[in-house]
Design a protein that fits this description.
InterPro entries: DUF5997. The protein is mostly helical. The protein has helices spanning about 5-10, 20-25, 30-35, 40-50, 55-60, 65-70, 80-85, 90-125.
Amino acid sequence: MKPATAAKKLDVYLPATPAEFREGSITRAELAALQADPPEWLKTLRAEGPHPKNLVAAKLGVSNSALVRNGITEALTTAQINDLLAEMPEWLAAERATQVEVRREERRVKSLHEDRRRDREEAENPEA
């Protein structure tokens, strides 16, 4: 597979990986080996970053779009993420609150759909 695909599967930022990882192709067996017994560079990269945007967003508790809206377009290190969380700028607090509301609404809609599905099944099988 392509290095970009392998980096996604490993949750690492491709430009921060070693040249030999970026320049070759990775077999499924090699990927499995990296996941099972990560080398030091992979452990360090996962712990310290820089992290890909999806992980930055998850660690900050916001969406990828929220990062872009607020000018964060580059990968961030763990230290930078921790600094943002400690500072809690106004935009981050607002985006986190929005994300909480979005998740709450998603749960409400999912529950509503499950209730409707259950009602349909009961109507179709009244003896069950």
